[in-house]
């Protein structure tokens, strides 16, 4: 019997935020080749952006329109109504949603997240907050026609629908700008696990970071049949005006048929796929297309690992499909792709033949994006992926599968024990209802547990507003991840 490793954050972290308890090591190719790739990346031009929270990265890091707004609380797991997750997510105006309840929210229709919100799942007690469907509806969490949306430390696991449905992702972002999704645990989708879609408006400035995308359902309720998919970036229809400036950074993909990821883009800006780990597809890892417009993709220092479900001849980590007349440029140094039983052969080709012909060192990166050499990526990414503050049995299973080179792409949630039973839990006391728990206020001179304080007043110890200091302390942002 394998003993699970400790998957909560360790107090002893290196500068990359890595939990040193992670034991996984991979054989590596020539260190000279890795070093040369790192030097090449340093010459790539960058694009400047602001920052939503300490350590925010990528094109979505300017998602800060919630600052100075109301501080609201999610206090029950009802599908709607006062105090529900839906009520806060669908409210208007700048706001912070403190998740002050643990457990599972069961939905019969999607939640439409509106602009200018910080959904702070790190405040959830117990084992965190999980969102799922009741067999009806579509994608449970939809960010559409919105700006400045920040969602952190949340589990979204829809599950199959009672009748065929082609639109059940875990999370969809559509026609939105300045969106940041961080430490998300996304599972049990029957379409893409994560989808960025462009239709009638601009879709740009989006980051998906440090998230765990696992166990999408293959032979399930999608009308096309087999449809276990990872991430689809810049799907579009004829009315789309553009899609680009998108970051996928330090995410872990486990057990999807393909789309690890599937990327398109337009002249709006590039898509960067940096320091991700992809494990156990059936047929494909990365698939990149020129169908939308001038497509520029930076695929840097990622790790592709076949598994028990992967076909006998592992595919390249990146394949390019030229199906239109638009140009495509690919920057792809420093990646690792493995073959052999349980990742014993590090010499598998990274780029397919068309991908090799489209290499271009001029594809830019967002400003200040931290980049690790691929040799360090697994140990940095895996312990921190997903809602690691509330690590539950499903996420632990995904991590154990990677560590042990086990598991498979599934058809039904019952194959992995179903949805974790997350108990409801009481939040930390907040006597004055200002959003700052009593214990935290007691540790900060000048704050009162009896009289509401201004959560947006400056915290002299961090230079942030008090509410942001509290949220960043819980999330592990201080000191900022570099």
UniProtKB/TrEMBL annotation:
Tell me the PANTHER family matching this sequence. PECTATE LYASE C-RELATED
Q: Which residues form the Pectate lyase domain?
A: 139-282
Keyword terms, alphabetized = Glycoprotein, Lyase, Metal-binding
Q: Which organism is it from?
A: Palleronia abyssalis
GO molecular function annotations of the record: lyase activity; metal ion binding
* Region listing for Disordered, in residue ranges: 418-461
Name of the protein in its database record: Pectate lyase domain-containing protein
Which SUPFAM superfamilies does the entry link to? Pectin lyase-like
What's a Pfam family in this record? Answer: Pectate_lyase_4
Asked whether the keyword Iron-sulfur is assigned, the reply is no
């Amino acid at each position: 019997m394998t003993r699970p490793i400790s998957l909560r954050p360790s107090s002893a972290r290196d500068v990359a935020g890595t939990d040193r308890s992670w034991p996984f090591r991979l054989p590596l190719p020539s260190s000279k080749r890795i070093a040369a790739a790192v030097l090449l990346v340093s010459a790539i031009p960058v694009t400047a952006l602001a920052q939503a929270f300490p350590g925010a990265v990528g094109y979505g890091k300017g998602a800060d329109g919630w600052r100075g707004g109301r501080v609201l609380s999610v206090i029950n797991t009802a599908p709607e109504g006062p105090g529900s997750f839906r009520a806060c997510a669908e409210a208007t105006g700048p706001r912070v949603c403190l998740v002050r309840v643990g457990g599972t929210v069961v939905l019969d229709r999607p939640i439409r997240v509106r602009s200018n919100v910080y959904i702070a799942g790190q405040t959830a007690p117990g084992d965190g907050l999980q969102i799922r469907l009741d067999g009806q509806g579509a994608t449970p969490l939809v960010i559409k026609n919105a700006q400045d949306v920040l969602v952190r430390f949340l589990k979204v696991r829809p599950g199959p629908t009672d009748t065929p449905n082609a639109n059940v992702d875990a999370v969809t972002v559509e026609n939105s700008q300045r969106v940041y999704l961080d430490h998300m645990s996304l599972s049990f989708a029957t379409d893409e696990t994560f989808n960025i879609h462009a239709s009638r408006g601009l879709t740009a400035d989006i980051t998906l970071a440090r998230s765990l995308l696992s166990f999408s359902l293959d032979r399930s309720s999608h009308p096309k049949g087999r449809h276990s998919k990872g991430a689809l970036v810049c799907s579009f229809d004829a009315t789309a005006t553009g899609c680009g400036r998108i970051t996928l950074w330090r995410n872990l993909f486990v057990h999807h048929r393909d789309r690890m990821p599937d990327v398109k883009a337009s002249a709006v800006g590039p898509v960067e796929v940096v320091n991700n780990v992809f494990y156990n597809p059936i047929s494909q890892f990365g698939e990149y297309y020129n169908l939308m417009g001038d497509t520029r993709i930076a695929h840097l220092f990622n790790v592709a690992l076949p598994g028990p479900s992967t076909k006998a001849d592992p595919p390249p980590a990146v394949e390019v499909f030229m199906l239109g007349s638009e140009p495509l440029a690919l920057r792809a140094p420093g990646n690792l792709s493995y073959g052999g039983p349980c990742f014993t052969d590090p010499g598998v080709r990274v780029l397919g033949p068309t991908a090799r012909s489209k290499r271009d060192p001029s594809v830019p990166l967002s400003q200040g994006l931290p980049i690790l050499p691929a040799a360090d990526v697994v140990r940095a990414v895996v312990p921190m992926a997903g809602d690691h503050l509330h690590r539950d049995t499903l996420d632990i299973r995904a991590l154990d599968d990677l560590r042990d080179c086990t598991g498979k792409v599934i058809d039904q949630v019952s194959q992995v024990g179903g949805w974790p039973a997350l108990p409801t839990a009481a939040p930390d006391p907040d006597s004055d209802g200002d959003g700052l728990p009593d214990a935290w206020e007691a540790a900060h001179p000048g704050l009162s547990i009896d009289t509401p304080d201004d959560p947006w007043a400056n915290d002299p110890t961090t230079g942030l507003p008090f509410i942001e200091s509290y949220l960043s302390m819980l999330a592990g942002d201080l000191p900022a991840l570099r």
